[in-house]
């Protein structure tokens, strides 16, 4: 409020994941979609919910904080606001990728930022899986072979974790589209997307389209720019004043 009062123009703000959803809706994979979920995975895992063409923020602005969602396969986190973590984060976030890598004996840069190390591991896994697709491995052509070594196991278990959390969102929202975004998901690429899709088909009744985000360069900034342009257009062309 103090910053808004000090500036000579209107000020608005939003969280990073919501802005990425704006970018995808205006410029990327969610164009022409009125109902979609964007699942973001970097340092933390979160979602943006677009319903009827509009972002749903909830009463307190916390809609989409799905990292706190209790999910099967993860310890039950009590008082998640204090621990700043939750079941879905522990099952499918960047920290979960690194934990799986350690279990599987895969090396990574322990000094790198968590999201960067997780992305590097999944990029290696996607590369290892890219030549092992087969129609028999899953319901979609190109689904990686789950037996393609430690990297294949990393990819498969990561995809399962993502799908478990998404199954709850799909059951509640029945979206037209799910967009996987953020550096961790992007690094896994098409092999990860195909495995998540195969797992989600087994776990949920609705079957929304599942795609990778296409606004990968500065998605938060692009979303902020699109929001600002929309506000400016409303101000300039408001004929009610």
UniProtKB/TrEMBL annotation:
Family: Belongs to the ROK (NagC/XylR) family.
Pfam (any one): ROK
InterPro entries: ATPase_NBD (IPR043129), ROK (IPR000600)
SUPFAM superfamilies: Actin-like ATPase domain
Top-level taxon of the source organism: Bacteria
Protein name: ROK family protein
Coiled-coil regions listed in the entry: none
């Amino acid at each position: 409020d103090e910053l808004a009062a000090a500036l000579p123009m209107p000020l608005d703000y939003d969280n990073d994941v919501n802005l990425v959803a704006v970018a995808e809706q205006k410029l990327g994979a969610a164009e022409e979609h009125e109902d979609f979920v964007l699942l973001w995975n970097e340092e933390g895992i979160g979602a943006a919910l677009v319903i009827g063409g509009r972002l749903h923020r909830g009463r307190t602005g916390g809609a989409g904080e799905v990292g706190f969602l209790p999910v099967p396969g993860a310890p039950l986190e009590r008082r998640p606001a204090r621990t700043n973590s939750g079941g879905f984060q522990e099952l499918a976030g960047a920290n979960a990728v690194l934990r799986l890598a350690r279990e599987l004996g895969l090396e990574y840069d322990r000094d790198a930022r968590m999201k960067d190390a997780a992305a590097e591991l999944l990029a290696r896994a996607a590369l290892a899986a890219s030549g092992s697709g087969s129609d028999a491995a899953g319901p979609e052509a190109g689904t990686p072979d789950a037996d393609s070594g430690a990297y294949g196991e990393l990819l498969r278990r990561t995809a399962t974790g993502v799908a478990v959390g998404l199954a709850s969102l799909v059951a509640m929202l029945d979206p037209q589209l799910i967009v996987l975004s953020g550096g961790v998901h992007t690094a896994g690429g098409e092999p990860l997307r195909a495995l998540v899709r195969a797992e989600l088909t087994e776990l949920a009744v609705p079957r929304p389209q599942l795609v990778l985000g296409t606004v990968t360069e500065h998605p938060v900034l692009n979303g902020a720019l699109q929001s600002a342009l929309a506000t400016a257009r409303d101000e300039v062309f408001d004929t009610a004043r």
